[in-house]
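Hallway conversation turned thread

IA: we were arguing at lunch whether anyone had actually written out MALR1 protein end to end. Turns out nobody had. So, for the record, here is the sequence (134 residues) and right after it the structure tokens. Reply here if something looks off.
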Amino acid sequence: GSSCEKCDFETDLCNTLHELNLQPGWIRRNGRSGMGPPYFDHNGNDSAYFLSLSSDMRSSSATLRTNVFLPTDEEHVCQITFHYWISQMRGTLMVGLQKHSEDTITKIWQVSGELQNQWKTNAITINSTEKYEV
């Protein structure tokens, strides 16, 4: 069976991600919040919620961590699909992989310097022989 979990932020942060209060800088909002673009989610819905970086952030970066995922193999492939919007030229969005035996985070995808001002979608396939977080 499919173990896919959809994380749409409509009611809360959803189970995949750690509680938001551990992650300063991220806010859950929708397009009607009066905080500037985006004014809608990736489906064009202005009342649907998404995560956004607060404009009054003091630090230069903010992290979102997933819960622990189990190892992958031929039967259990992990693919994470996400929608993103970049509204700053100097902004960089990075996806990293941290395996449980390692202290370091390995960068597996990043995008930067693209002032798109539109929603884009990306899918990442992850292979790990041990438990990991993203």
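OS: looked through it. The first strand starts at residue 26 and ends at 30.
IA: good, adding that to the notes. The chain has one domain: 17-133.
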